Amino acid sequence: MEALPILIFIAGPPLATFLVSVIYFRAAEHYSLGTRLLVSLHGVALTCWFILTICMNALGFTGAKFQFAFYAALFMPSALALYSIFRFEGGAIHLLQIVNLVCALAMMVLAPLIVGGL
Q: pLDDT per residue over 80-89, tens digit each?
């Protein structure tokens, strides 16, 4: 029970970004499958980025030299989010990008701690 807040803080942001992607995918039903995937992939990409961070730590790939790669890897989810904003015609649904932004910032705080071996 003592570890529950820590678990929520670590698992919460990736889960939230994944759910944002699911919401986008469900809302984009009038698009082709390829477009649906592209407009909804931003949260999944953030989740994968964070899971990769944890795997790198488990495999022993820690240190400052790996931190730049993880910050550079944030380009893909950012590009996908921008694509989604310009391609997807849902007005209020784009407010979910605020959730993605907050979660990405939380994961950016956690990633150097995990990858850096701190």
A: 999 999 998 8
Using alpha carbons, list the distances in angstroms from residue 66 to 1, 26, 76.
33, 35, 17
Nearest to 39 by CA among 99, 89, 83, 95: 83
Tell me if 115 sits within 8 A of 53, measured CB to CB: yes
Closest by Cα among 91, 100, 117 to 22: 100
Phi, psi of 117 (to 5 degrees): 75, 20
Q: Left (φ > 0), alpha (ψ -120 to 50) or beta: where does 117 sit?
A: left
Contact predicate 107/46, CB 8 Å: yes
